[in-house]
Amino acid sequence: MKAxxxxxxxxxxxxxxxxLQIEKGRLLYNKLLALKKDAxxxxxxSLSRKDLYRQVKGNxxxxxxxxxxxxxxxxxxxxxxxxxxxxxxxxKGFPRFKKYGTYNSITLPQITNPSNIGKKTYFPKIGGLNVxxxxxxxxxxxxxxxxxxxxGKYFVTVSCDNVPKERITIGNGKVGIDLGLNHFIAxxxxxxxxxxxxxxxxxNQRKKLAKLFSKTKKRGNNRNKVRTKLARIDEQxxxxxxxxxxxxxxxxxxxxxxxxxxxLNVKGMVKNHYLAKAITDVSWNGFTNKLSFKAESAGGxxxxxxxxxxxxxxxxxxxxxxxxxAVRTHKCxxxxxxxxxxxxxxxxxxxxxxxxxxxxxxxxxxxxxxxxGISPKQALSMKQEALV
Length: 388
Ligand SMILES: [Zn+2]
Fold this sequence. Notes:
The chain is of the alpha+beta class. It has helices at 12-43, 49-56, 64-86, 198-215, 221-255, 266-270, 273-282, 284-298, 341-355, 376-381, and strands at 2-8, 105-108, 121-123, 127-129, 140-148, 154-161, 173-179, 185-187, 192-193, 256-262, 301-305, 329-331, 338-340, 363-365, 368-370. The chain folds into 2 domains: 2-161, no CATH class; 173-387, no CATH class. It has 10 helices and 15 strands. The strands form 5 sheets. The chain has a 5-stranded mixed β-sheet with strand order 9-8-7-10-11. A 4-stranded antiparallel β-sheet has the order 1-6-5-2. The chain has a two-stranded antiparallel ribbon with strand order 3-4.
């Protein structure tokens, strides 16, 4: 399944209809969830998806399939909940009632006339929508979702089946990549790729707005206005970042069929408040996930290696060359190598990857995960340079 998302500009009348249908969806969600909880509590019965379908039958306020999809969402929420218990995750996420404003979409799970998508877009109880398909849909359209984002903008998402695989000609090079804070990444071949330019401006704007927000009165009108603006900026930041990440993935894979990355436990690191902002800003996690995904679908290979000592070791002779965080250049007095410290790290990552080193398993110790002698904190202290 692949999803295609488009912004829409509904008329005022349509927007009202969409808002109303979403609100009806929310109320139905809460009603079904209450039924499911009660049935279990009072009778020890677990209502199945079909039981829930029976409950929505005859509901004339929403299209039958759209209301069935609400039942599907509850079913899915429970399945995810049990899966999390099975995986012994700390956050269980028991399905909860949806407050006003926290339920923001409706889905038609079976598009009746898929061949029409791309020309006319119809959603039951709302009517024909004017969608500009700036990116052509591929495959067979299956489901269509209308969403109202926190920013107040409306989006349509069409999910498709049988989407032909994207054709990237995977390069045959091998490369090590150092994920940095100064540059977004540095490669063992000596390349740097930097953050998208508008990012800094956007994040400054966001900072100002966040400050403004904290000064507004609670429940005030102004607070809502600022909140909407914040949501818009967040949307822009996310779009810029995604766009940049996908393009970079493509660029790298077209050159390198095998890519070695450091396996940094980003989740563990984000807990460290001091670094949290910087890390989420550069969003390594999002990037490496995209890279792995894209490599897999196109036939490339992304391998994560233990980052131990990668920034301190000399990639020329293997000696440990201690350097403070502020030192940008790796200078080795043993072999005379003098290169950018991130490139040195990227070269080490490449050679660790090429030797074929097994990743140590993460052993959870209290709240923090530790990996064979190197804690996420230590891994990070090697990465903090740009913050100093
Ligand atoms: Zn050396």
